[in-house]
Amino acid sequence: MMATxxxxxxxxxxxxxxxxxxxxxxxxxxxxDRVEGTRRYESMSTGGTSLVIDLALEPLSRGRRECALSLRxxxxxxxxxSLREDGIDVGPILERPSGVFASLKDPDGRDVELWEPxxxxxxxxxxxxxxxxxLDAPPLPPAPVPLPxxxxxxxxxxxxxxxxxxxxxxxxxxPxxxxxxxPVRLEMHSALDLDKxxxxxxxxxxxxxxxxxxxxxxxxxxxxPPPPMMGAPGPVVTAARPxxxxxxxxxxxxxxxxxxxxxxxxxxxxxxxxxxxxxDDFTLEIEAPPHAPGSVEIVIENPDGQRSxxxxxxxxxxxxxxxxxxxxxxxxxxxxxxxGRNFEEGCRVTFFGNRAxxxxxxxPSRIRFVTPPQEQLFHGELRVTNPDGLSALAAELFTxxxxxxxxxxxxxxxxxxxxxxxxxxxxxDFHPQCVARLGGKPATVxxxxxxxxxxxxxxxxxxxxxxxxIENPDGQxxxLEGAFTYEAEPTPPLLVEVRPDRGYxxxxxxxxxxxxxxxxxxxxxIGEVRAISRTRSRHEIEVELPQRTQPGxxxxxxxxxxxxxxxxxxxxxxxxxxxxxxxxxxxxNGPMVGGTRIVxxxxxxxxxxxxxxxxxxxxxxxxxxxxxxxxxxxxSRMSGFVDIEVGRGDAGNTVVKNAFRxxxxxxxxxxxxxxxKGSVEGGTEVSIEGKNFVAESAVLFGGKPAQRVKFVSxxxxxxKTPPGKNGEMVDVVVRNPDGKEAxxxxxxxxxxxxxx
Length: 756
Description:
This is IPT/TIG domain-containing protein. The chain is mainly β and 756 residues long.
């Protein structure tokens, strides 16, 4: 015998799993968990069957039927009304032998069926008798239970025990409830689940019959059981919501109170209510039958005969008689006038299952509103609901009509015969459910707006021009001839050699790729990073090496203009750059005034290294090669040995201790100052001749620094005098950076007769 497996998961492949899972969370009351690192959403229903929404491997066209779901609901009319109020479009309710059905669509256009199974009669065993009757005598009816004296006369007669009545009625969509309704949770059931339920029901019935026969056989040999519900409190009903309902019936009424026993009956104006639903000891739900206007009693009767009564009111409510216009644009903004009776100020309109933006109340016989946008093409219903909750329904009075689509341009207008290229189509009046064909073959469509679509091209049989067709759901077609060009598959780029095949993590190095089929727009990626490149020919590409934080082997990718990727693993090696190394310094000494030209020899020098001599930057440093640097020593305030440091920010540095010696410098000497007279305003150009001058020498006139000092040579300085007093003869001082100086007494005369 073959084992039977339970149904574990139903998987729906969706173009947008986030939107589809959100739809089923709202429409079916399910809770989804996202699988980490994926776009897969899973939900476990109370029946143990899991609904899974997963990303489709290929784009799905709208309405494509990967599968269809049938969701079982406890009360289809209530569920449909609740979903319409939430803005979900639910189709008409239809009857079939197995129950009542309605349909809707999820965000991918997939069909979803709502199903309320038809109730089945339940066999009720007769209550046990205290005295065993003769075998051929019919069972005696149970004795009536005494009723409390304060119960209304309506319940004087004993309630006959009757099996539940199955009544087939046309499905009537109820109006929105006046109170907040708890969310309706739908359950998924497979055919296997239903078979199990049927088998369980059969087994339960068989077991009940066996137990009844056993009890009958024992009757007379055992003491009779006590009467059922002996001493149990009677039902108490405290509220009915809503308390005012339409005379057309079909409204769901919630009854609140206490002591509602299992198997209790509900009577509306003396008539048994079909299929009352007991939620718990405190809540019952019934569907109101049609009734004439006026006050009506609802009676709740427990199996022991105890009763409780509450009043509700039937009212005519609003009525729809005329509707104009009967057609409008799916973009909305059509003003609609509704005429009828009993409209109340503050009434609301539910149009095509969606709440209308605004209702203008003109009189009890006339209201108007502006149609909202609509993405579907069909006839729709109108419901007018008064503030008291009573409503009127007019089905299929209005039709949305689509405009004729027009395609203007396709961009890009070419692609490979292999297809799978994304292109944009611009135009007007595209519908969200439109379809597209390229060269007669269907293309995957993503609707962006009424003026823009995105297509994924299908595979073509051969290169060449093809036509584009866009068809709206109403059959109107726009055709753009020769809109797209299919091109033959290109030869992918070929990478043969990388020169050099290693470089430093700091990047910036120039490398060359050798191969074939290179194009001007070929993209180069090194270590997953796009590099700056220049195609020199079909056989060579010059690339600037990008930076990388860690050393190691990386791949090189070439991507051509068609998106074809050629990848070569472990094609390039990143290395950590070593710190610069200094092997020798020539010469090793110079004067304190600086200016000595020295040569540093070593390795790993480049234009990014820095040099420090005695902690100071040299006057000039030039990297001649990776092994040689030329520099000019800066002045020093002290004589003696100093360190030389060569480094690079990303590789560290090298320090050579006592690499250079500053020798004491001779004191400067002044031989002449010419001219020796000048303007009291300053600015007189003076030439000072002497020896042992340096570039950093300072010149003072009467203790004031010269305006400008120009070092011409070790024997000549050119300066501009500072301001002075008329007739004053001042000393001239030349002071070197090491503090040594030369003084010529009374060497310059300030004379007001001179002008600078």
